[in-house]
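Re: weekly structure request thread

Next one in the queue (181 aa):
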Amino acid sequence: MEGETAAKAAGSSSSSPSRYESQKRRDWNTVLQYLKNHKPPLSLSRCSGAHVIEFLKYLDQFGKTKVHVLACPFFGEPNPPAQCTCPLRQAWGSLDALIGRLRAAFEEIGGGLPESNPFAAKAVRIYLKEVRETQAKARGIPYDKKKRKRPLTAKATPNVDDGESSGGSGGAALVVSSTMV
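Done, posted below.
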């Protein structure tokens, strides 16, 4: 409760909250309403990563991103030529941003130790990773892990003398593009 009072005081010191703060407040209120309407109703202190995933799946019904299923003839095509009956879902980027705002809101209200934050649970991170990979496959766009690129960028830095003016990451992108063609 004390963190919530501090957050309100900080928000009232400026003339109006930022777009991010307003969205974070709306998202937080949506989660609290979801927990209140949950059968049985849940308090925030009893909310777990599994409940957060349940909430994210609930939000899919309001999604606007078509995610092709395996049986769809357009599965794996970035720009399908016709309409299909595949379900609309929340886009991965929207879910990822939502979880980031909810994680921050939980910490601001003084929800406890960071380990007790249900929005930062390992299960939620795994679920988001699966959503990202599923949506990328359905669109036919491979997802390259950034972790694999970082060591290459660090090793490619000494190669800047080879005439590359954009640095290691730009050179790595050019190599990827040339191998795709």
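The two ends are 57 Å apart (CA to CA). The CA atoms of residues 65 and 96 lie 14 Å apart.
Next request, please.
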